[in-house]
Amino acid sequence: MQELTHYINGQHVKGTSGRFSDVFNPATGEVQAKCPLASVEEMDQAVRAAMAAQPAWAATNPQRRARVMMEFVRLLNRDMDKLAEALSREHGKTFPDAKGDIQRGLEVVEYCVGAPQLLKGEFTDSAGPGIDIYSMRQPLGVTAGITPFNFPAMIPMWMFAPALACGNAFILKPSERDPSVPLMLAELMEEAGLPKGILQVVNGDKVAVDAILDHEVIQSIGFVGSTPIAQYIYGRGCSNGKRVQCFGGAKNHMIIMPDADMDQAADALIGAGYGAAGERCMAISVAVPVGDETADRLIEKLVPRIEKLKVGPYTAGNDVDYGPVVTGEAKKRILGLIDSGIAQGATLVVDGRDFKLQGYEDGFFVGPHLFDHVTPDMDIYTQEIFGPVLSTVRAGSYEEALKLAMDHEYGNGTAIFTRDGDAARDFAARVNVGMVGINVPIPVPLAYHTFGGWKKSGFGDLNQHGPDSFKFYTRTKTVTSRWPSGIKEGGEFNFKAMD
Predict the structure, then answer these.
(1) Active-site annotation holder among 112, 166, 246, 281
(2) What is the pTM of this model?
(3) 281 in active site
(4) What pLDDT is recorded for position 7?
């Protein structure tokens, strides 16, 4: 049985707490490794090492820091398959999907190569008589991130790449369910030229999280996960005087107007609803067709596509559509919500409850499900399922469809499929959701824009990656300067009379 480590001050360090978490192979259900769960003392060891190393890194000019990012990009491309295989083995997602996970993180690293430009301050000449005013963006010091299981490469890079480019040290507490890739990323960063102690990985559970929240040295915290934990981290972190950004749950609606290309809409729902087994915070889990005729046409298009989905382990080839969910507990919760949907009156159009994969009977596979006639009071509508389950809520009008998305407590992402530019423009302007797609089912912005939800999907003033990340990981210092006059006249070589 493999025993994983922490990565502290440039070295793999065995856990000393005596506590471990099982790391499963989701396809087989077998435990493949043990992940150490850090104590408060182990977290403090990493923070102290970061605190000692950070001043020299902050004093390194931004262009040299950017060169480390450039080399890291090269190494990520070199090791792409190796990283993707490790990711698939622990998470369960398909190999192409795992490579996409790494690629979307790599794109943020590429954006951070522009740190010299992004860190430039402002200058006002002659703000007053002989007075100049200028601002500087300076690093916070030691920063930290707590990342989820569903994107074990992308989200850590979304956090640590801008933090490091700004001159901070970073403590990463990844998910204990799939911790190998974060450890590999830390090694690659140091191979790229990052000094020891600047990026460290400390595995753990709530003990490690609370140690981050309460440590007086840590200046900022990033988090992605469920909304209840996001609220807890945001509240406790802010009360301890830290800068905090937290991103929580989601229930993303896709509105399908009567004029939409129904084949395009159905294809989009298949990828957005069932890709990665639905374990994405940007997954479309609610289809909202406008009008019964639209709904009937949509269901007719969806059913044969769903029935053709290939579910299997990542080792079965690149034509697998999605793999298992991450744990047995996750599978049990998803099936429980499906049963509740049936009990509360929804119509189960595609039933995947009896799905079994020969040779992988103990794996955490969940077959695809499609519900129709879902209503807003049902658990499958109010709760984030995080599984391969698509719910159809029929709306009588555009305004009713818009209201569904606006009234839900989550506001991460949403989409509308239509040929009507006026309807699309109105939807984008009015909907109270942070990321909007127009004929795009998963509207994740590119690296040079920012990612973030509204309502109970996001807590904090600044979003992830893009320009907001450089604001989040720096403080602005403003300097007002005036120099005494007269010196510029130069020296005098004649004797002056005594006064």
Answers:
(1) 281
(2) 0.94
(3) yes
(4) 98
